[in-house]
Amino acid sequence: MWVMVLFDLPTETKTDTRNYRKFVDMLEKDGFTRFQFSIFLRHCLSMDNAKVHMKRVKMNLPPKGHVGIFHITDKQFGMMEVFISAKKEELPQPTQQLELF
To answer: Where does Mg(2+) bind (predicted)?
Structure first.
C-alpha cells in the first residue's frame, strides 16, 4: 500500500513559508519521501498502517493551500511509468520496515 500526499501551498509571506516548511518537515519525519516537488509518498505494510499515516497528515494540515491524500496498492504503483527528461526511470522500491509488537 502506498500513501501519496499532493499539495499546493502558498509561500507569499514569511508565515506561509514557515507553514509550508513545517508541513514538509512533518511529512519527512513521518517517513514520507519526496517524489516530486509537491508530491510525497510513503510505503505502508497494510491498510490499517496507511490509515494511521493519513490521519497524521490530516492532523497537521497547514491553514492555507490545497492538500490531497490518497492510497494505492503496490500493484497499481508498480504499473506507473516515470520519465525524467524522456528517459525512463525505475520506480522507488519499498523500504524495509521493522514492526515491534
So the answer is: 8
